[in-house]
Write a structure and sequence with these properties.
The structure holds two protein chains of two kinds.
Chain A: H1 8-11, E1 13-15, E2 22-24, H2 44-64, E3 68-72, E4 75-79, H3 81-90, H4 94-123, H5 130-143, H6 149-160, E5 167-171, H7 173-191
Antiparallel strand pairs in A: 1-2, 3-4, 3-5
Chain B: E1 7-9, E2 16-18, E3 27-29, E4 36-39, H1 45-64, E5 68-72, E6 75-79, H2 81-88, H3 94-122, H4 131-141, H5 147-162, E7 166-169, H6 171-187, H7 193-197
Antiparallel strand pairs in B: 1-2, 3-4, 5-6, 5-7
The chains are: A mainly alpha, B alpha+beta.
């Protein structure tokens, strides 16, 4: 292993988030693109916790409440997300069932667990598995928005199935909560500053 | 000296490196956290502009033409992206309708328009009017572009409905496939290299 590269604060440098240029740490704004410069994202931990907890609270109604109401030939039915997964599974489309399960259940749960773990370990200034935690963060950033899948499906089905007496479909409150969960978890991931993983207890500040 | 153009700072762990020229298809990774620092720049502005203009045309087709058409008992119905968004925006679901409108329609549209604007002037080696603003907006909206999620949603909806109805994928679906590829190629790419490439590095625009 070669020696690790120096870190920006040791050299009096701040990297601009927006345009990526390396700037002097004493500047308030990036000379190239004019964006505000900060050594770490402001209030990263508090903001991430706030978004994450809000998302976790809304995750309950998003799973309990129905996301869609469909009526076929007079037989009405309100279905939740998990109900939809089970329906697909029973009808033999196990692949679609798995896809929706991953996008709607596995991805949000993974985000809660990973971001929670990252927050706790950063707050304890842990030096444990830093490279793996850094990788986990990038993974969460990458998968986050796929949860929007269910919102798209409900939108399309509600737009299409409009046959009055024969059959209708309309969105229900659960999908609102679910959409907000996706937005909030994305905000949580964005407010977390992965550089905190590498900050030492004896390091600056 | 306030800017260090020869240096690159890892966004994920704050390590500082001296930039090297990369060969074709090479990727510079951070030695500390293994995040990607930068990729070999094959940014050919003409190619990128051509793809952006194509994306603009395909975007119109994808949004105007129906993505799915269903028939049942002699009746039929079809929907495009905008109709799906408005169906979602009924009553209490309005908030999530707005989220869908932003991520599936507005953000991809902005990406295409702003990128096209910036590249049009970049061809002449100039910074477009409002270059800084356009580049900042492009950077901030990038995570919220969800065309590929819409495509997957269309496919799931087709399977879901085909159990009980006659479902046909419309021209909008095919246009969305093309659009997904194009948006991925043009908009997920890091165009920040344009900051350094185009003259006007010393024009400090802030504070106006």
């Amino acid at each position: 292993m070669t020696a690790l590269a120096p870190r920006a604060h040791e050299l009096g440098i701040v990297g601009c988030h927006t345009c990526g240029s390396a700037c002097s740490a004493d500047l308030p704004r990036c000379p190239r693109c004019g964006s505000p410069l900060h050594r770490r994202k402001p209030d990263s931990l508090a903001r991430t916790w706030a978004f994450l907890i809000a998302a976790l609270i809304l995750y309950i109604p998003s799973n309990v409440l129905p996301v869609m109401y469909t009526s076929m030939l007079g037989r009405g039915e309100a279905s939740t997300i998990l109900h939809g997964v089970v329906e697909f599974w029973k009808s033999g489309s196990w692949d679609i069932a798995l896809l929706i399960f991953i996008a709607s259940v596995a991805v949000p749960s993974t985000k809660f667990l990973v971001l929670g773990t990252l927050l706790v370990t950063v707050q304890r200034r842990s030096t444990w598995a830093r490279q793996q935690r850094a990788r986990l963060y990038r993974f969460v950033e990458l998968i986050g928005y796929w949860s929007m899948l269910d919102v798209v499906v409900v939108a399309l089905v509600s737009a299409l199935v409009q046959f009055h007496l024969l059959g209708t479909a309309e969105p229900r409150l659960g999908i609102v909560f679910f959409g907000l969960v996706v937005v909030l978890t994305m905000c949580a991931a964005m407010s977390f500053d992965p550089r905190l993983i590498w900050d030492d207890a004896d390091g600056s500040e | 000296m306030t800017l260090y153009p020869a240096l690159v700072v890892c966004e994920h762990c704050d390590s500082v490196y001296r930039k090297h020229d990369l060969d074709h298809d090479e990727v510079a990774r951070c030695g500390r956290c293994r995040a990607v620092l930068y990729r070999a720049s094959r940014l050919d502005i003409d190619h990128l502009l051509a793809l952006t203009l194509t994306a603009a045309i395909v975007f119109v087709i994808a949004n105007v033409s129906p993505v799915i058409r269903i028939t049942v008992g002699g009746m039929h119905n079809e929907a495009n992206l905008l109709q799906a968004i408005s169906a979602l925006s009924q009553g209490s679901a309005l908030i999530v309708g707005l989220v869908a409108a932003a991520t599936l329609f507005l953000v991809p549209l902005l990406q295409i328009v702003l990128l096209g604007w910036v590249l049009l002037f970049a061809r002449a080696g100039r910074r477009a009017p409002g270059f800084g603003f356009a580049m900042r907006v492009l950077h901030h909206i990038r995570p919220w572009s969800m065309t590929e999620v819409f495509l997957l949603g269309v496919l799931v909806a087709i399977v879901k409905l085909s159990g009980m109805l006659n479902v046909i994928a419309g021209p909008g679906t095919y246009a969305t496939v093309v659009l997904t590829v194009l948006v991925t190629v043009i908009a997920k790419r890091d165009v920040r290299i344009l900051w350094g490439r185009l003259s006007g590095d010393t024009d400090v625009e802030w504070g106006t």
